[in-house]
Amino acid sequence: MRGTTNVTVQESTTGADPKGGRPVLPSRGRQRPLGMGETTLTGGFWATLQQTNATATLAHCEQWMEHLGWLANFDRVADGTTGPDRAGWSFADSEVYKLIEALAWEHGRSGDQVYDDAVRRLTARIARAQDADGYLNTCFGHAGQQPRYSDLEFGHELYCTGHLLQAAVARLRTTGPDDLVAVARRAADHVCDTFGPDGLPGICGHPEIEVGLAELGRALGDSRYVEQARLFLDRRGHGTLKDIPLGRAYFQDDEPIRTAGTWRGHAVRALYLSAAAVDVAVEQEDPELLAAVERQWANAVARRTHLTGGMGSRHQDEGFGEDWELPPDRAYCETCAGVASVMVSWRLYLATGDVRYADLIERTFFNIIATSPRSDGRAFFYANPLQQRVPGAASDDDAVSPRAEGGSRAAWFDVSCCPTNVARTLATWHTYLATAGRHELTLLHYAGARIEAELGDGRIVSLEVETDYPRDGLVTVRVVRAPEGPVALRLRVPAWARGAVLDEGGRRRPVEPGLAAVDRALDPGEEIRLHLPMTPRFTWPDRRIDALRGCVAVERGPLVYCAESVDLPEGTELDDLTVDIRAEPLDQDGRVTVRVFRNHRRDPEPAWPYGTSADGGGTSTTASTELALVPYHRWAERGPTGMRVWLPIVHPAPVGSP
Amino acid sequence: MRGTTNVTVQESTTGADPKGGRPVLPSRGRQRPLGMGETTLTGGFWATLQQTNATATLAHCEQWMEHLGWLANFDRVADGTTGPDRAGWSFADSEVYKLIEALAWEHGRSGDQVYDDAVRRLTARIARAQDADGYLNTCFGHAGQQPRYSDLEFGHELYCTGHLLQAAVARLRTTGPDDLVAVARRAADHVCDTFGPDGLPGICGHPEIEVGLAELGRALGDSRYVEQARLFLDRRGHGTLKDIPLGRAYFQDDEPIRTAGTWRGHAVRALYLSAAAVDVAVEQEDPELLAAVERQWANAVARRTHLTGGMGSRHQDEGFGEDWELPPDRAYCETCAGVASVMVSWRLYLATGDVRYADLIERTFFNIIATSPRSDGRAFFYANPLQQRVPGAASDDDAVSPRAEGGSRAAWFDVSCCPTNVARTLATWHTYLATAGRHELTLLHYAGARIEAELGDGRIVSLEVETDYPRDGLVTVRVVRAPEGPVALRLRVPAWARGAVLDEGGRRRPVEPGLAAVDRALDPGEEIRLHLPMTPRFTWPDRRIDALRGCVAVERGPLVYCAESVDLPEGTELDDLTVDIRAEPLDQDGRVTVRVFRNHRRDPEPAWPYGTSADGGGTSTTASTELALVPYHRWAERGPTGMRVWLPIVHPAPVGSP
């Protein structure tokens, strides 16, 4: 199998993770993810987000779920008082499980007992609601409810179970087996018994059970769970579910995953499914299945992905849309699709060692995952459009937002999948920092951190990373402890970082995007410095992206920038601006600026907006002036505002010659 | 009241229409619409469509409704056999009523007994289902059904009743009072009794009852119905309905119609509501209400309308979207919204005499109404996007299409509002041809026709129009019979027709867009010739329409043109083309062509589509070659195909200076 056989990295089949926990731990692959015992953030961009997640977001999520009765749903099943007035959507249980998963990881990360207590408290309530045969769901199968598995298309039962299994994996790998793990095992066994080769031939409308089963199978060394995941994967794509108005592509039941060419339909569904497919491909040494996901990744990233890494162009079905359908204003780019995209890319990177996957992860981390939570960790973006024409309403932190739009972060949503997804991702962010191979250690992301990693050959490398990235492009790696003999140290040079320089062993040398290599014995105390070029740059879209024609964006390092209407002079609107591309964007002490022309409007009366003149709408232009941009991930932090990532240009360059 | 008091045109308060029938007959206004007894099409574009509608579409619709059980729903109510398995959506009754309306108009137009028989046959089945108190609906209020008016947001009960009243108006104005009219009166009285000033304070989630009540009130001279329409109008916009996930703007319950600035939410709902508002404003001499609709029309036409006249930019809610949100690929432009747009513009034109409204009507007629039906009248477009990236599936004439997308016309839809809406519009198309004022006759649209109109002063003008419009720009108006004294003959010169020439009374003179005037006595036998310039032209979008930046469209006369992938050489895709705007589009014996460059693709491997080079995607270009375009209204007539109205240009012109 391509790229997955050279290193076998599985360290335990009993569940507890000697490296301190990590969400994904394949049995084999090019790269082994470091565990929480091997990496610690010491400060900077992600440490701040991780700290806010721990101190604000986790309690915020639990409070909302208690307030809305999503937790009490479990008590009511346990007490036999279910009825037609159950709180929340059918998938509300999954939010509880994602919160438990996040709490478990945060306990594993910080060792703080408060998170362990919370897991135990929530586990106790959940466990009481489990039926004798292992079935656990608060929406189906009890008095006054629809029968179990009577609505596979939209009932989300197996989806919820999948999140329960992921929560149990977090617990297994941080504290070892406990009550939650026991509940999850019973639930997983029930699923295998019910939907096994001789059972119901169904699948869940929302993939997730597959990735939960695969990881629980890995964590417990139980191949039956992995095989059940494979069975679900291969059952899909044959019209197994009922047709729906949005079509079977919505839940990827239109074509088998092994033959499909690209991602389509509901983005989160497509991506959770692909994450599971990589897991199964790796565990069962199935190169066809791995190649299928790699192909779908490549095609969707080339033609169905926004500059931010965001996926999903349609509100109607929260779906991908077609190739080149990438409207900035109606970009959906659900936060959860960002989480799911990281899940897929991470698994592909571990299997193949290809840094393209890490490039997309970094882009998605900085421009989707970091964009969703408000600075205080108590409100979130659900959709992440690249253009906001009309400023959203001021947020009301006491209200449940009904919709995935609006231009301001919301404290909670009617469908509130994103906050807990962000929470579980941030709690494990440091486990994406670096990976180990047989003799090599690869730094993928740059943050202030301590790393003490065990290589595949058993040797230990201990490093300290100092950096103010992404504010600054200097990354200093200090060797704290070095093993005997040569070490293959790798530093990822992001795809955008042309002109990067590596300063090590007494010499400075240019390094290309990809992996910069240091192949030698390391000296304790020595410093290796990577200089990433952080000059702001214009970014142009492929000519086939109709919705972006005649526009440029500005990026700096891994960050996408945007213009906000709150930064414009009175009487000017975002639509009035065009960028003077003859002047490069500037970085003035961390403040990124472009020069813009302001186009005076001359339409006092509304008029037909199509005409025989190329200046349609009629404009005249001032001399260019400076406009400050802000990182996209911090937009709308100063209140409701209009926003544009893609800025029209004065003199659109030819899209071809002559 | 601005523009509505100078001429009172009401001719009858007993229902039957001495002019042979017309859908709209205000009591006053600048212009009086001609009736079916005053106009006849003699050949050409619209006569063909009207004939196909009569001979194919009407029977097609009845067959599908019989097949799907939508007609039997009435029998089941009558027989007391209703149950939970009722066929179709809650609004299926309205399709039956729209079909009856179309049949009644076609009977009025052609005098063919077969259509009268069909009306009687269907009326008999409907009448049996009416409850003793006048309530008539097959979805609510009977055994096994929800109670009456228990779901005003989405139940569509009053919506259905509104269409019943419009069908009755068609009957009243063609045959006079009959069983259908009696049924409709009872239903209207029931609505007034139930929802009157002292009744339920509700409104229907889908406006339509208002326009039905207003026109029935006019046809019967019953001001109570008009007043009930006003009451519904003024109740709306105060959060009268429950909030829904899409927000109250979806059904225009977010802001009163008198204060709203533009159209928003579901397009058909917004437009039916506005049509009713014009009716009420005219009947009750309410200048504030008329001005509100004029303002909303002006703003929405300037910023929320596609080049085709299509309205609605979002699939999610079939809604308008925001100002400048006009994506060609996801343009919804529902056929019914085109019908509804004509309804509003027609009423505004009659009230004010402003030809801007007629301009939009013509654009919508040729590019939305004429686009929907297949040439054989047995399949229809529901949505009318301006770009189709991936050719749709080949149509299956035996299948019900679940969705309003796909790029091929469908025989029938799960939600099948469009076919009957097209049918009732085509059956009355000739009543939009011309209007009469006190001393004037205005020709609004050009088609082979005979017109014998009575002016407001009682004099008769009789004309024959000969033209091959829109294939040719020559319109010959022959005076058949002329009254004593001067006549104010007006010929609309469309807004696009710069360079038009009027040849009359022995002289040729240039005429500007607007109304060309002939103010003199007419001589029987004389010919007045209008030459409209039919040279194809490039059309540019307003710079604020982000989705169209760097593109041009081609129009010729009232027709929008498009490129279809079936016309491209093997191996070329629509995305590969850019238009050479240095060469004007040509008309070669009716074949419209542009010169295009073909951009060779050089991306054998999928790659990240954003980069530092302005030729993103990488292209090189051949010498330009000729490409034939087709009128948009005939796209996809040669099978599934990709399509573009807006074509990228090689050298985008500056959107400002310098």
From TrEMBL, chains A, B:
Residues 446-534 form the Non-reducing end beta-L-arabinofuranosidase-like GH127 middle domain. Residues 1-37 are annotated as: Disordered. Residues 537-648 form the Non-reducing end beta-L-arabinofuranosidase-like GH127 C-terminal domain. The keyword Translocase does not apply. Residues 40-428 form the Non-reducing end beta-L-arabinofuranosidase-like GH127 catalytic domain. One of its GO terms (biological process) is carbohydrate metabolic process. It comes from the Bacteria. It holds the Pfam family Glyco_hydro127C. InterPro entries: 6-hairpin_glycosidase_sf (IPR008928), Beta-AFase-like (IPR049174), Beta-AFase-like_GH127_C (IPR049049), Beta-AFase-like_GH127_cat (IPR012878), Beta-AFase-like_GH127_middle (IPR049046). GO terms for molecular function: hydrolase activity. Signal peptide: none annotated. Residues 1-15 have a biased composition (Polar residues). The keyword Hydrolase applies. Keywords: Hydrolase. This is Glycoside hydrolase family 127 protein.
